[in-house]
Amino acid sequence: MYSASTETEPSRAEVDAHVGPVLLEFGTSWCGWCRRAQPLIGAALAAHPNVRHIKVEDGPGQPLGRSFGVKLWPTLVFLRGGKETARLVRPNDPEDVGQALSAIDPADS
Predict the structure, then answer these.
(1) Does any domain span residue 3?
(2) Phi, psi values for residue 21, rounded to 5°
(3) CATH label of the domain that carries residue 38
(4) Listing from the earlier edge strand, what are the strands of the sheet with 75-80?
(5) What's the mean pLDDT when you consider all of the chain?
(6) Which of 19, 44, 73, 87 is the most exposed place for a label (fewest CB within 10 A)?
(7) Which of the 8 DSSP states describes residue 40?
(8) What's the domain count of the chain?
(9) Residue 80, CB half-sphere, CA atoms under 13 Å: how many?
(10) Cβ atoms within 10 Å of 71's Cβ, excluding its own
């Protein structure tokens, strides 16, 4: 469950080095909360094509999730210039996701 451009979990250093807007999505393919959130995440991302979406299969011992303090799935971490600007845990409101994406998307600023 990684971004289309990577097959392995990126390191924290790689994530921190991103210059543009990034949405890190921590979860699993079998998580009901994660599956339920997919349509609202997808709809919000459709309005922000400049945002790189990295889906990370999370679980015990996964270093990237631990470095972000992920405790529940899905957890969405919004980054701009490698810095966290917002976080949503178990999102259920498309407006919340859209607002967080607008805050990191320079094309939307």
Answers:
(1) no
(2) -75, 135
(3) 3.40.30.10
(4) 52-57, 21-27, 75-80, 83-89
(5) 90
(6) 19
(7) H
(8) 1
(9) 14
(10) 11
Indicate the pTM of the whole model. 0.90
* Residue numbers of the domain that contains 99: 12-108
Structural domain includes residue 49? yes
Which tokens belong to 97?
A: 């996701």
Residue at token pair 């405790």: 71
Confidence (pLDDT) at 2: 40
> How far is it, in rounded angstroms, from Cα 109 to Cα 106?
5
CA of 43: how far to CAs of 36, 52, 68, 94, in Å? 13, 14, 25, 8
Per-residue pLDDT of the chain (109 residues; tens, 9 = 90+): 444 444 578 999 999 999 999 999 999 999 999 999 999 999 999 999 999 999 999 988 889 999 999 999 999 999 999 999 999 999 999 999 999 999 999 886 5
